[in-house]
Design brief:
The complex is a heterotrimer of chains A (226), B (228) and C (56). Chain B is an all-alpha fold. Chain B has helices at 2-22, 24-43, 48-76, 83-89, 94-124, 132-157, 163-191, 194-198, 200-225. Chain C has one helix spanning 3-53. Chain C is rod-shaped. Classes of the chains: A mainly alpha (226), B mainly alpha (228), C mainly alpha (56).
């Protein structure tokens, strides 16, 4: 059942993405200011949005773990954060390539980018710290704590972007300003959906691995008791 | 509630007293921050203008390094003789233990900062005393932020083998919004640039919000993470 | 827009999408290889436990 669901989500996500790529490269007109490079937005922004969705899911799972002490929630949290970190990297890399073309530099230290990089580093830290803690309860508690604390940084970062003395090069968020032309809105939404389906499939795979890993741990303990 | 505050006060007093008697982390942190100040002066050979432009960043880098040394000891101090178990099983609520520890770390870090500030001015020829009130407010806010987040990390990492390595890896990225605010305001206060001085208010707001969020979050969450 | 800029645009668009899909692909591949390792380890341990439980 779980396996079938994973495959179904993965295949559906891939199909949506292929269909969407066909529209993006075949049917959409170039953007007036940027030319063809603007098409990166259809993978750049959906990656960021889906990363935030999975990070929020991880936050909920972490809170649930601290409240219920059920290790399933810990597994959900790791699975979501791993996929989200990958999406954050995707967002940063595509953004950097766009920046090289449009601004002539790979990286500008404006707050929008700094904050995204910081987010990436925090969750990378989470993933790096986890294997270093041997005791399962400690590991899960520590992970939940980091996940909650790291997520609390997100609103602060959003606030920091709006500081008046901060100069920003990054284009304004299209979703907030509603500047996205109607022709582009469909593919944009489909891009989000495609990465969401693929991401969920990957989360399910990762979740299964985490459950197997816990099973391995308990089998090892059982072997030691002989 | 009142008993909790009394317990927090007692724990803060205990921490400060032991630290002032043994001066374990205090001397380490203080000498470390002086060493970094000297090192930085070798690393950067700058003119007066440039030095002023990076002065805030320099100062807060030193302070956050010193802060990591202080908060690292906060809960680790209770490990010998199983003092931590006694603390956790005492009638004092978790938030009171956390609050006491944070207040102690706050004052220790404040001592280190206020002692090394004149040395900073002396080594780099920076006139830092031009608006002492605002500078003190900024130092208070940022120090409280470093203490809160640092002590919370100290609480979760206390039983972990690689504690000293883990703390900085996770602590510094989390402090970035706070440090950004502190660096911006401090540089503005040193350079007296009218543009920068005008936009200081929102940076201070950011620091206040950071402190509010992390203080309340830590006070609430510490109950769940201390019992490990 | 001048033709050089247009060509450059297309090139960087290609770089962007290639990088994006490469990251996705590498992630999926590491996930699969790690999954294989975990599965074989689990099977090995299960066999070991059964071996020990069998009265000899």
């Amino acid at each position: 059942m779980r396996e079938k669901l994973t495959y179904a989500l993965g295949i559906l996500g891939t199909l949506v993405m292929l269909f969407n790529l066909n529209t993006i490269f075949g049917d959409l007109p170039d953007e007036a200011m940027q030319g063809t490079i603007f098409r990166i937005i259809f993978i750049h922004v959906p990656a960021a949005i889906n990363a935030d969705i999975f990070l929020f899911a991880a936050l909920c799972a972490s809170v649930a773990f601290l409240a219920k002490k059920n290790f399933l929630y810990d597994s959900i949290s790791v699975a979501c954060i791993e996929v989200a970190t990958m999406l954050l990297l995707l967002n940063l890399v595509t953004g950097s390539i766009w920046g090289r073309n449009q601004w002539g530099i790979w990286w500008a230290w404006d707050l929008r980018m700094t904050s995204q990089l910081m987010c990436f580093l925090l969750y990378l830290g989470y993933l790096l710290v986890r294997p270093a803690i041997a005791e399962p309860t400690q590991r899960a508690t520590m992970s939940a704590f980091i996940s909650i604390f790291a997520f609390a940084d997100v609103p602060l970062v959003l606030m920091a972007i709006r500081l008046p003395n901060v100069k920003t090069q990054h284009p304004g968020p299209v979703l907030e300003t509603g500047n996205l032309a109607p022709v582009y809105q469909g593919p944009f939404a489909l891009g989000i959906l495609a990465l969401f389906l693929l991401g969920t499939a990957l989360v399910l795979v990762r979740l299964h691995q985490e459950t197997s890993r816990r099973e391995i741990d308990s089998l090892r303990r059982e072997l030691h008791s002989f | 509630m009142r008993a909790g505050f009394a317990a927090a006060f007692a724990i803060a007093r205990k921490d400060l007293q032991t630290e002032l008697r043994t001066r374990e982390s205090l001397t380490a942190s203080l000498s470390f921050s002086l060493v970094i100040l000297v090192l930085f002066s070798f690393a950067f050979d700058l003119g007066r203008e440039e030095l002023y432009a990076i002065s805030g960043g320099l100062l807060w880098l030193v302070y956050s390094f010193a802060g990591a040394l202080i908060v690292n000891r906060s809960f680790a101090r209770e490990l010998p003789n199983d003092c931590l178990d006694v603390l956790v099983s005492s009638p004092a609520p978790g938030w009171a233990i956390f609050l006491g520890k944070t207040v102690a770390a706050f004052f220790l870090l404040l001592i280190v900062e206020l002692v090394s500030l004149p040395f900073f001015g002396l080594f780099y020829n920076i006139s830092w005393w031009q608006s002492p009130g605002t500078l003190l407010l900024v130092i208070f806010l940022a120090t409280w932020g470093i203490a809160v987040v640092g002590v919370a990390f100290s609480a979760v990492t206390v039983n972990i083998r690689l504690r000293e390595l883990m703390l900085p890896v996770l602590l510094y990225p989390m402090l970035i919004p706070l440090l950004l605010g502190a660096i911006g305001t401090t540089t503005a206060l040193f350079t007296r640039d009218p543009e920068a001085l005008k936009s200081m208010g929102s940076s201070i707001q950011l620091m206040i919000v950071f402190n509010l969020i992390y203080t309340s979050l830590s006070l609430y969450i510490v109950e769940f993470i201390l019992i490990v | 827009m001048d033709p050089i800029a247009v060509a450059n645009n297309l090139r960087f668009l290609f770089y962007g999408y290639t990088a994006g899909f490469l990251i996705l692909l590498i992630f999926v591949l590491t996930l699969v290889s790690r999954g294989r390792k975990i599965d074989s380890e689990l099977a090995r341990l299960k066999a070991l436990v059964e071996d020990k439980e069998r009265p000899s």
